[in-house]
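Work Package 3 (structural annotation) set out to generate three-dimensional models for the target panel prioritized at the project kickoff. During this period the team completed the workflow that converts sequence records into discrete structure tokens, so that structures can be stored uniformly alongside our sequence database. As a representative example, we reproduce one entry of 183 residues exactly as it appears in the project archive.
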Amino acid sequence: MAYKLNNVAVLVVDSNHNHMQLIKEVLRPLGVNRIAETMNAKDALTYLETNVVDIIFTEWHMDGEMDGIGFVEWVRKNPASKNVFVPIIMVTAQSEEWKVMKARDAGVTEFLVKPFSAKTMARRITVVVENPRQFVRTDEFFGPDRRRHVTSNYTGQERRKDLMAKGDQMMDDTAVEELLKEL
């Protein structure tokens, strides 16, 4: 499905100027023209203090004190963050399974491996627009539901039900509204 993305505000965080330019050049033909860019996580956090964005693209490795994982964790977990529910797409060459899982566990919404095509990036944007994931809060995690697919024939342990019985919860619309009031 084609979307009009001209009102979508995007933040690109990447310390490699060429990679940042590539992401921007792929976004523009998709209709995205509100693109902010920062070269490190510290500048991105400063930008987010006064701006709300619709999608963040971030690199795993960045110059400065904080890498992409630390940046994602700050956006998701820091009480000062105004963008806790923003879709975050990790754009990186780091495609080892443990790194993908670490990014997911930090609160990344989607993962885009370099090199990528415009079609692949458009798919990731489509996923976050068409299938926004419910957010989950536990003692150890806050972010988009890490389960991508519901399987009707699942026979394993129902950890989420066990967690919910202990008081942790998936965030419904009311819980999301209450959390936003707290911020």
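The beta strands are 9-13, 34-38, 55-58, 88-92, 110-113, 135-137, 142-144, 169-170.
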